[in-house]
């Protein structure tokens, strides 16, 4: 018999597919309904890796599936090709970042060719092409016109080793994510996008995605925006005209306030301590110095021992008139709320720890034990942690007895009436810092003129192209290398013609990926970023597939940009990705793969050893797509065996196409049609592994039918073989195509429509069960052959004739032989 040779099969079909170009979406007159299936585009840091192999296998299952369901499917590919690794390679090895990047793209492309996802290559894009990034610049100008792009000086996370600004998420436990150096703060004037204007919509619109995005990602998005609701409360300060406002989520605990804490690095703290005694001022200065070196993450940690200094000042409790000492402590942040808190040690853990450390009073105002029947009375002296839960108010004057929620409402209302407070909202989200002092990115299209200030580059002068890297010192030093490109940076002001300088920062690469899904729709256009009509036709993306590492920022920025484009009238939707699938990671021996650990499995090696189909099947069959896959636990060789078994069926089937399937073996036909009926729901709910298991079953029963059943010539066997080939296209396109050709059809099987199940073959066939009472037949039941004995007995006992035959007699014995016989014996 012929051998299943994946390499020969790949070689045979690649050129045919090139010729046929079955995944083109060029035809504007195509009437089929549309689906947009998108994989997160790769960063070209080297060849593709196993993580890519998994993500693209899963994305391709979805794309191929919908095409076979009769949809016109757009499944594009491109490269996220700006970014630091190219620049670091350039610095380390003296290569040109451009050459490095595009060389890697070529390598990834050739791996993709063999892996053969169903891409429409005519829409390929690279974000580092001027044809792409000119539209980043255009977008920047649109945001600038709307006041959504602005510059400000502010303290930023600074890596002293990489000499660059870091986003918050690049700071891990106070250290640089890349090099591990201790991160410090530094003041720089930089560009921001005003994403905070969209904070509410970024939370509220998640509603639209509630059923189609992973819950984990929805809550990560929600938490990142960090909307909190509560009240602002004003506290009068002794010896000061202006009151201090604090933000609290727990106005119900107002009677439990026993001191006040302000952020040491707020202006308020310095102001308050000004008139204090010299010792206090000195202690404060030292404490401030220490605080400046700390990251927000450290400062907010509940694990940390509390520290702080007394400022020598007192606030006045708005309801009781009590004197409240004011402290400065690093657990209060200067840039959240008002940089000051009303401390309620009985009900807030950090306040509790602080009160314990500095022997400040603790007053319980919410009884959190009301629901417990035998709880010991609460006593501040014996508390070991704050009482954070729900409960009923105590020690709170007129509010005693109210539940927390009710008390929040009542106390907030009363504060508002007396002019001492108001409902308030706060967000953790900060504006998006997009400036990078690096070379390999999109130049910011602004010119700084001594006379005119900030002047946007006129749209018809875009793109502002990057100057060549040659001759520039790319090493990070806190200012962009572009600033040293004299010919490039010195220009005439577009407004007054006077001497001016280009802005030399480049954009965060998250800008590139915040809208690329729209660029695919008009990938070659020189006139527009994307065609509005095309966006109406294709967007938003129906299915987005990618790693959970992008669950926060990339998705947040793409969601933000979509809303901006919506407000500017360019798109008619507000969420870019209707459904999201996050695949797990590919591990090795339970660990993340990495060169340094020495457990790296190279994609190219696996591809050469097993071929594209076996890898795809292995990755899809390993488990639910969201779960991690341990490459040590899976068997690409097993997948190859399955594929060979499927493939051999097509060889063994001898008959010609166009058979009347209805003449075939009914048992096998039932199996085929049950598969046709079940697989779509499995695939649509991402149960790819189950769908493959079902396909494996079908292959097995078909093999049995050939070897031991009705034989290879039976029409049902041929129907099964065709069904296997069509379904296999979703998971293993080469094998499927080869089978399809052996069955006598023309390529491409990818364009063959999924067959509809015949409903008459789905109805479970029934058999007649006989019910005997004391040896006489008293009933006949129509039951499915797979009926469980207990169910059959239940039906038998419920039959009216049978009940009459039994009468009042006591049942002594019941014998059940499902599905044929139930025999009941009674006492005489
Ligand atoms: C009194 C109180 C009592 C509080 C209680 C909590 C529990 P979220 O949910 O994160 O918005 N807070 C306010 N401004 C702060 C700042 N700049 N730095 C650190 N903490 C600050 O948290 C709001 C709560 O965090 C506020 O409610 C305040 O403490 C504190 F039983 O006020 B609360
Ligand atoms: Zn000017």
Automatic annotation (TrEMBL):
Residues 668-787 form the Methionyl/Valyl/Leucyl/Isoleucyl-tRNA synthetase anticodon-binding domain. Residues 429-630 form the Aminoacyl-tRNA synthetase class Ia domain. Residues 40-181 form the Methionyl/Leucyl tRNA synthetase domain. The keyword Protein biosynthesis applies. GO terms for biological process: leucyl-tRNA aminoacylation. It comes from the Bacteria. A motif ('KMSKS' region) lies at residues 592-596. Residues 222-415 form the Leucyl-tRNA synthetase editing domain. One of its GO terms (cellular component) is cytosol. PROSITE patterns: AA_TRNA_LIGASE_I. It is found in: Cytoplasm. GO terms for molecular function: aminoacyl-tRNA deacylase activity; ATP binding; leucine-tRNA ligase activity. Its main location: cytoplasm. InterPro entries: aa-tRNA-synth_I_CS, aa-tRNA-synth_Ia, Leu-tRNA-ligase, Leu_tRNA-synth_edit, M/V/L/I-tRNA-synth_anticd-bd, Methionyl/Leucyl_tRNA_Synth, Rossmann-like_a/b/a_fold, tRNAsynth_Ia_anticodon-bd. Belongs to the class-I aminoacyl-tRNA synthetase family. This is Leucine--tRNA ligase. The lineage of its organism: Bacteria, Bacillati, Actinomycetota, Actinomycetes, Micrococcales.
């Amino acid at each position: 018999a012929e051998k299943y040779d994946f390499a020969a099969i790949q070689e045979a079909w690649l050129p045919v597919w090139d010729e046929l170009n079955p995944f083109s979406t060029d035809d504007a007159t195509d009437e089929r309904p549309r689906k947009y299936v998108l994989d997160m585009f790769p960063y070209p840091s080297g060849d593709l890796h196993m993580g890519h192999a998994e993500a693209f296998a899963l994305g391709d299952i979805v794309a191929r599936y919908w095409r076979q369901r009769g949809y016109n499917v757009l499944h594009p590919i491109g490269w996220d090709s700006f970014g630091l690794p190219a620049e670091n390679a350039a610095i380390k090895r003296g290569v040109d970042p451009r050459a490095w990047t595009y060389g890697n793209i070529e390598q990834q492309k050739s791996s993709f060719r063999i892996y053969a996802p169903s891409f429409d290559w005519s829409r390929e894009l690279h974000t580092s092409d001027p044809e792409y990034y000119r539209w980043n610049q255009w977008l920047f100008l649109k945001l600038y016109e709307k006041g959504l792009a602005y510059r400000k000086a502010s303290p930023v996370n600074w890596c002293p080793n990489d000499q660059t600004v870091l986003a918050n998420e690049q700071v891990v436990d106070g250290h640089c994510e890349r090099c591990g150096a201790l991160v410090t703060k530094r003041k720089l004037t930089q560009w921001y996008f005003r994403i905070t204007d969209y904070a509410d919509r970024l939370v509220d619109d998640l509603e639209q995605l509630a059923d189609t995005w992973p819950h984990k990602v929805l809550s990560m998005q929600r938490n990142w925006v960090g909307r909190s609701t509560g009240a602002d409360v004003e506290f009068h300060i002794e010896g000061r005209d202006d009151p201090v406002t604090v933000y609290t989520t727990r106005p119900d605990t107002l009677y439990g306030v026993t001191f006040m804490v302000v952020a040491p690095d707020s202006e308020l703290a310095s102001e308050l301590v000004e008139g204090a005694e010299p010792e206090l001022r000195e202690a404060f200065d030292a404490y401030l110095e220490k605080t400046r070196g700390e990251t927000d993450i450290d400062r907010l940690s509940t694990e940390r021992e509390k520290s702080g200094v007394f400022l020598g000042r007192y606030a006045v409790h708005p309801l009781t008139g009590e004197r409240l000492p004011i402290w400065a402590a690093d657990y209060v942040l200067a840039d959240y709320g008002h940089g000051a808190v009303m401390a309620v040690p009985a009900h807030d853990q950090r306040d509790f720890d602080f009160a314990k450390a500095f022997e400040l009073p603790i007053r319980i105002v919410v009884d959190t034990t009301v629901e417990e029947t035998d709880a010991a009375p609460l006593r501040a002296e014996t508390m070991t942690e704050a009482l954070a839960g729900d409960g009923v108010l105590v020690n709170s004057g007129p509010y005693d007895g109210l539940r927390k929620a009710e008390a929040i409402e009542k106390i907030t209302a009363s504060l508002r009436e007396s002019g001492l407070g108001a409902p308030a909202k706060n967000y953790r989200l900060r504006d998006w810092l997009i400036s990078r002092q690096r070379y390999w990115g999109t130049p910011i299209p602004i010119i700084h003129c001594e006379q005119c200030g900030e002047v946007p580059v006129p749209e018809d002068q875009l793109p502002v192209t990057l100057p060549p890297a040659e001759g520039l010192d790319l090493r990070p030093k806190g200012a962009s290398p572009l600033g040293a490109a004299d010919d490039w940076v010195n220009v005439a002001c577009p407004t007054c013609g006077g001497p001016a300088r280009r802005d030399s920062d480049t954009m965060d690469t998250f800008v590139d990926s915040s809208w690329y899904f729209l660029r695919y729709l008009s990938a070659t256009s020189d006139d527009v970023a994307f065609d509005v009509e095309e966006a109406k036709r294709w967007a938003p993306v129906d299915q987005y597939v990618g790693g959970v590492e992008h669950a926060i920022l990339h998705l947040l920025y793409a969601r933000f940009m979509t809303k901006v484009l919506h407000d500017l009238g360019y798109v008619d939707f507000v969420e870019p990705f209707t459904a999201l699938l996050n695949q797990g990671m590919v591990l090795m021996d339970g660990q993340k793969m990495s060169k340094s650990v020495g457990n790296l499995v190279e994609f190219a090696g696996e591809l050469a050893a097993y071929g594209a189909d076996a890898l795809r099947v292995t990755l899809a069959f390993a488990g639910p797509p969201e779960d991690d896959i341990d490459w040590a636990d899976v068997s690409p060789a097993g997948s190859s065996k399955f594929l060979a078994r499927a493939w051999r069926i097509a060889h063994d089937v001898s008959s010609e196409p166009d058979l009347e399937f209805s003449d075939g073996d009914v048992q096998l036909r039932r199996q085929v049609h049950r598969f046709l009926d079940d697989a779509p729901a499995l695939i649509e709910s991402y149960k790819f592994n189950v769908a493959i298991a079902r396909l494996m079953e079908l292959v097995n029963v078909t093999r049995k039918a050939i070897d031991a059943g009705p034989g290879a010539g039976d029409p049902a066997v041929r129907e099964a073989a065709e069904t296997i080939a069509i379904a296999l296209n979703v998971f293993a396109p080469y094998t499927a195509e080869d089978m399809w050709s052996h069955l006598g059809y023309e390529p491409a099987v990818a364009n063959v429509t999924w067959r509809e199940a015949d409903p008459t073959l789905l109805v479970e066939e029934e058999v007649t069960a006989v019910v005997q009472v004391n040896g006489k037949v008293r009933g006949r039941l129509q039951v499915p052959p797979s009926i469980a004995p207990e169910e059959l007995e239940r039906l038998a006992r419920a039959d009216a004739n049978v009940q009459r035959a039994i009468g009042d007699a006591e049942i002594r014995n019941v014998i059940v032989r499902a599905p044929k016989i139930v025999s009941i014996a009674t006492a005489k």
